[in-house]
Amino acid sequence: MKVMTILHKATLNILKPKQFSYHVPIWNQQHRNLMSRQLVYNEFGDPLHVVKYRECEVPPLGKQEVLVRMLAAPVNPADINTIQGKYPVKVSLPSIPGNEGVGLVEQVGSEIKDLNRGKKVILTTSLQGTWRDVGVFQRSSLTVVPDALGDVEAATLTVNPCTAFRMLCDFVCLKKDDVVIQNGGNSACGQNVIQICKAWGVKTVNIVRNRPEINDLKAYLTSLGATYVFTEEELRSVQIFKGEVKKPLLALNCVGGKSGAQLFRYMDHGGTMVTYGGLSRSVKKFTCSTGICWLKI
């Protein structure tokens, strides 16, 4: 996706730290000119048009606040939808994008006793604005993570792994050799679903969009533990549900539209479809002719 690619590069660029003198605290009462490089938007719309770069002075540190130097922050579809004004949760403008991120503590407020400089922390409260290189956050919005946890893994810990785990646990009691079918199998959440199911002995049927490098993508998802990987076109003629594997008890739909309807066709009687996204921006009506399983959302 062009928008996400460009913003991803832009976000990585602002997160490259300036050459601060880290042998002394970068925050103190005599150095109020610490600047934060940020991406910000003042109106909803196309991210390529409304997201702007700015530098602004970091405000004084409150008693329960923490100064964090950001190390990494991802670009999620929800971030794009929020900027566009299409996400269910509306933010106040102007706003700094970014729900997830990891950073290092540089300074803590006078009342904070359980957090020290140099600790690696992630944001566990949404809409904090992580697309910046330095930020001030409430202590209650931060959770310490192990230093050994990679920056990429830490920065993406709070959304997709948790979503995958809850969808696999909350709707169907899955057992070994049960089958889960999902579209968006190469998404961040989809990859987490694959790996969790592999660990549990649950089989996955993963649907992806066709592309020139489709064989490489299939090999990659298989290396993560995917049982089957099909394109949307291939799914229309698959025969695996006629005896090779059981019909899926659980379908995970992040695309919607015709792609979601395809999943519905292959589900077992009494199965459950969980829709957690609508990347196609298309609504598909389900009728009795689509399949015989129940749609439980």
TrEMBL record:
- The enzyme's E.C. designation: 1.3.1.104
Keyword vocabulary terms for this entry: Fatty acid biosynthesis, Fatty acid metabolism, Lipid biosynthesis, Lipid metabolism, Mitochondrion, NADP, Oxidoreductase, Transit peptide
Q: Which InterPro entries does the protein's record reference? A: ADH-like_C, ADH-like_N, ER, GroES-like_sf, Mito_Enoyl-ACP_Reductase, NAD(P)-bd_dom_sf
**Where does the record say this protein resides?**
Mitochondrion
Alphabetical list of Pfam families matching this protein: ADH_N, ADH_zinc_N
Q: What does it catalyze?
A: a 2,3-saturated acyl-[ACP] + NADP(+) = a (2E)-enoyl-[ACP] + NADPH + H(+)
Indicate the segments forming the Enoyl reductase (ER) domain, all copies: 46-275
**Superkingdom in the source lineage:** Eukaryota
Q: Which GO terms describe its molecular function?
A: enoyl-[acyl-carrier-protein] reductase (NADPH) activity
Give the UniProt entry's GO cellular component terms. mitochondrion
| Any one of the GO BP annotations | fatty acid biosynthetic process
Provide the family line.
Belongs to the zinc-containing alcohol dehydrogenase family. Quinone oxidoreductase subfamily.
What is this protein identified as?
Enoyl-[acyl-carrier-protein] reductase, mitochondrial
